[in-house]
Amino acid sequence: MLRLPLTAAALLIIACSQGTARADEIRRQPIAIAIHGGAGVISREQLGPDDGANYRAALALALDAGYAVLERGGSSLDAVSTAVRLLEDEPLFNAGRGAVLTHEGTAELDASIMTGHDLKAGAVAGVKRIRNPIDLARKVMEDSPHVMLYGEGAENFAASRGFEFVDNAFFITPQRQRQLQRVLTGATQPRNELSGLGTVGAVAVDSAGNLAAATSTGGMTNKRWGRIGDAPIIGAGTYANNASCAVSATGHGEYFIRSVVAYDVCASIEYRGFSLAEAARHVVKEKLVARGGEGGIIAVDAAGNVALEFNSPGMFRGMRDSSGRREIAIYEK
Known about the structure:
By secondary structure, the protein is α+β, with helices and mostly antiparallel strands. The protein has a single domain (30-329), classed as Glutamine Phosphoribosylpyrophosphate, subunit 1, domain 1 (4-Layer Sandwich), CATH 3.60.20. The chain has ten helices and twelve strands. It has helices spanning 8-28, 44-47, 53-71, 76-88, 133-143, 151-160, 174-185, 253-259, 261-272, 276-290, and strands at 32-40, 109-115, 121-127, 148-150, 200-205, 211-217, 238-240, 246-251, 295-300, 306-310, 314-321, 326-329. The protein is globular, with a radius of gyration of 21 Å.
């Protein structure tokens, strides 16, 4: 068979077609983000006659801001950082400003973040003067040889990296003060007020197919002795691996730590061959329930699949993806 040499025009056509194919492949990579604002007992009476319109609006703001990062080609790391930062600034949720208070009446904040393409992670715990703990957790990941820093040491690191400090009073709201006082005096919680249990978090996949997860919390009302929950613990409250999925958890932290919930969801995919939905359901509604743990997780995989699974009466949550799906919800449908 006679093989004729390729002309310059033919080579150009081939190169252009290959370039178009690569561009189409990039465009076909789905993007998705999911967020949560805590899980627990959330009655409609507590949400009020507007069915929690203020909570839904706050979730929507964080969700759409994070998705906008992905939509303009930004990284999953930037997307989850953006979403969680907005949730930390919203006093309705138990993270950053509006976090629940310790036995001594102060706010002690925890956060963690992880990237799935390189398994890098950063976390801080027990910080009292950092407006957005998720930013400090990211700085630990990107600009230190460590994974987790605690308390005064974490804040010394923050000072060395130019972080702006706020007074601890910045985080304290009248609602959280009333909640702590009721716990200390044994008073009954009003039927129309949420307890503030839970965490905030975000997971995302970007146009490069990379995953990231981030989680932030104020912990438990009336916590003592420097108690730390699952939110800053990599594998318990946060985990991301491109080979499986990205997870952010919320609930009773001690159970999530013992069950290594975030990693367990990822491992169920990587080593047992579960789908994302199967893994989330198995860990949250079977294994965690059997151990007495209450709460939920949000998760996303590299294919853009999203799981929003919980075993509590409700979970503040939202998701959005490039197929056009957008959801803000509190209860099971």
